[in-house]
Amino acid sequence: MKTVYRKSALSAFILFFAVLAGLFFFGRYPLSVNASAEDDKQYVYDNYGLFSEEDVNELTDACLKYREEAQADIIMITSNNLGGKAAIDYLEDFYDEKGFGYDEKFGSTVMMLVYIGEDRRNVTIHGYGKAEYYVNNDRIEHILDDLSPFLKEKKYKKAFVEFAKESAYYMNESEGVKEAPASNDPDSGNYYGESSYDGPSNYYGEEKESPFYNTLVQLGIALVIGAVSVAVMAFNSGGRMTVQGKDYMDGSNSGILESSDDYLRTTTTRVKKPTPQSDDGPRSSGGGGVSSGGHSHSGGSRDF
């Protein structure tokens, strides 16, 4: 009887742990499947062959990281042959063919194409879905400002990572954005990629341009404030002199004996003239439009 009881207890014990193991396994397995499916999705299309396999893997990791922050697909493309198409048409057809999107097909996506041909080198950026509004034409121009130095120096990998980072930043920055319907008239000023402009944004890296965000400047200001404070305290802590110069001066025998004005040197300081930037409206290279598949987008393009 005791033997039967022990076998039953052992069977129940094994069954209990089998159920626990099953719950643990099946609880984790769907996540593994989803992650695997997501990993199979291609984000980097190095058609030109600029990057090593390691570089492509690192760029893919950047796409996945900033994709989550942006809630939008981040797509990177290089090419030396656009098949006779303009860059804007090439990207539009690419989007129509692949159906990118974060949580749905033909959804929020930011794409960047670097074209390196015999006649020219060009970079083009498009924003689809929600990115049409948040990575609008104005913001794309600011992204291109930041990428141009890297591209000119052939630091393509760094340029693509910066593109992903700034795309994620703007997808989470609502200042200066309104999700207003666009006009299909290119001359309306309210065309695709333009309708969302609602004044200047908190542009990426803008705070870094202010000298007050510079550590050395902050340290210098702190030292000056400290020195002034110490000087004031030292002045107030000592006795004040009550005797003045006039107490030792004989007015009847004092006067100016001689004066001279000697030329020493001329000093000239050159200061770089700042480039004026208008705040009257958005900046745009006019890259917005609608693909042949009917998908509207923002855009901007620049040679480098």
From TrEMBL:
Top-rank taxon: Bacteria
Q: TM spans, by residue?
A: 216-236
Location of the TPM domain? 44-166
- Region: Disordered; residue ranges are 174-195, 266-304
Q: Where is the composition biased (Low complexity)?
A: 293-304
The protein's UniProt keywords, in alphabetical order, are: Membrane, Transmembrane, Transmembrane helix
Matching InterPro entries: TPM_dom
Question: What protein name does the entry list?
Answer: TPM domain-containing protein
